[in-house]
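Listing S7. Sequence submitted for prediction.
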Amino acid sequence: MKDLNSLEQEIAQLVSEITGESVGVEASRVSVSTWDSLRHVEVIFAFEEAYGITLREDELAQLNSVKSLAQRAASAR
């Protein structure tokens, strides 16, 4: 099982690849200009595939930062 820090690093890399910006673990949709609504859908799909998680509809808007995605991945394990 990966620790939260490792998950944050992995998810930051995933977001970086999708948005085309180098982002850190503190990144969120507010702080990354290219993390728009279309890219958010891409991030969510990639996250679900990478971690084998199916998100509920009510989670989609709430999971809008590297940290929130990492916490969700950690809670699914």
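Caption to Listing S7: primary sequence and predicted structure tokens for the chain studied. DSSP finds three helices and no strands in the chain. Residues 4-75 form a domain with the Non-ribosomal Peptide Synthetase Peptidyl Carrier Protein; Chain A fold (CATH 1.10.1200.10).
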